[in-house]
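Workshop exercise sheet. Pairs work together: one partner reads the sequence aloud, the other fills in the structure field after running the prediction. Swap roles for the next sheet.
Pair: D.N. / O.F.
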Amino acid sequence: MVFKKILVALDNSSQSSLVFEQALELAQTEESHLMLFHCLSLETDGAWTPFVGTLGDMDMYNTFQRLQRERLHNKVESVHRWLQTYCQQATAQNVPCELDCKVGDVGSQICEAARQWEADVIVLSRRGRKGLSELLLGSVSNYVLHYAPCSVLVVQGITLPLVDTSAIATQANLNS
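Structure field:
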């Protein structure tokens, strides 16, 4: 299977560089184009709660809306600068690259971006949530796996190695 258009969904976590590296390597192998994509979630990236008040509160409401628009504009600019650093790395490796940032539901925005850009594959990470935490908090990677219009490559979350506590306990006993 040939992947000519690779959408890379980056979430500004510690895993973003690993996801980017995997996508860049794939793009070099396949001689592909990259689209670096980030989505600002409405739940976490802005207090988008409805305003309830009286007509006397209208001026405060307008001020609140203006501040929210400014805050969102600043976040989008910050994301563009952050994605641009990855874009420059790709360009330095002769991989054509572009970037995009949207606001909304992360999973559906990733799928929509892939659909509009006609991506051949989406590369993203998973944070490793399982069971109840995945059920309650949701899983972007799971959503994308089920609704993507193309193939999906999920880069597994970074896990810390297990520590052998028996060796630590033995060493502590020898030192006492």
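Discussion prompt: The beta strands are 5-9, 33-40, 97-103, 121-125, 151-155. What would you look at next?
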